[in-house]
Amino acid sequence: MLIRxxxxxxLLLLLWILLxxxxxxxLLSLGIASGLLVAWLIHRLALQNPDFSTLYFxxxxxxxxxxFFLEVVRSNLDVSWRILHPKLPISPNTSTVSTSKLNNVxxxxxxxxxxxxxxxxxxxxxxxxxxxHSLTQETAEKLQQGKMKERISVLQGRLNTS
Amino acid sequence: xFVVSWILLVLGSVFCLIGxxxxxxxxxxxxxxxxxxxxxxxxxxxxxxxxxxxxxxxxVIIKLILILLFMMLTGPTAVHALAHTAVLREKNRASxxxxxxxxxx
Lengths: 162, 105
Known about the structure:
The complex is a heterodimer of chains A (about 160) and B (about 100).
Chain A: H1 2-20, H2 25-45, H3 54-84, E1 93-98, H4 104-116, E2 120-125, E3 129-134, H5 137-144, H6 147-156
Antiparallel strand pairs in A: 1-3, 2-3
Chain B: H1 2-25, H2 29-54, H3 58-95
C-alpha cells in the first residue's frame, strides 16, 4: 500500500509540475507536500481498490474511446436535430439496464458513459441495475441492446468480476 | 490551422446555442437535462479543441486537455446529482414524507 501511495504522490507531483511550469525550490517543495497530502487522503479514503487493475483498464481504453467518441457525436446530432425540429419529436421515458458482471469501477464508468451521451442519463444506480432517463424510445431501446455494456465489460477484463 | 480552429470554435458555439434553445423548448425538467448535456459534451469539446489548435505553447495545450478530461468527469457527476435529487424529491412528495429526510434506496 505504501508503494501505491508513493506512486500516486509522484504522479501528482508530475501533474503539479506540468500545471505550474516552474521549477523553483519553493514551488517544487509545495508540490511535493501537496502531492503527499493528497495521496495520503486517497489512502485514508481507501479509494485504491486492490481488486481492480488500473493498468489493464487503461491499456484497453484506446480501443474503447474512438467508438465512444463517435457515439457521443452521433447522439449529439440526434438530440440537436430533435430540438430544432418544429414538431419536437420526443418521447421521454425511464427504463432500467442491468449491470450484472460489471465491477464497481466498470459500473461507474458505464453510468458516466450513459450520462455523457446526450439523449440518455443516469437517474439512479443500484447493486444490479442502473435507472436511465431517455429522451426518446429509440435511444432507450438502443441502450437495452447492451452494446455499450459489452464494450465496457471488455474494458474491465475477465479477471475482476465481483 | 487557423481556419480549422475557427471552424471548431463556431461549430462548438452553434451546439451551445442549440442546447440553450433546447432548454427553452423542451417541456419538463427531465428532458431539459438532455439539452443541457449537449452544451456539456459536444459544445465544450469543440470549443476546447478549437482553443487547442490555436495555441502553440505545449503547456497551454496540456492544460486545455486536462480541462477537457475533468469536464468529462464533473459533467456527468453534476447531471447525476441534479437528476437524483429531483427523483428523490418527487418520491418524497408522492409518499408525503418529511423532505428533510430523503430515504435512500
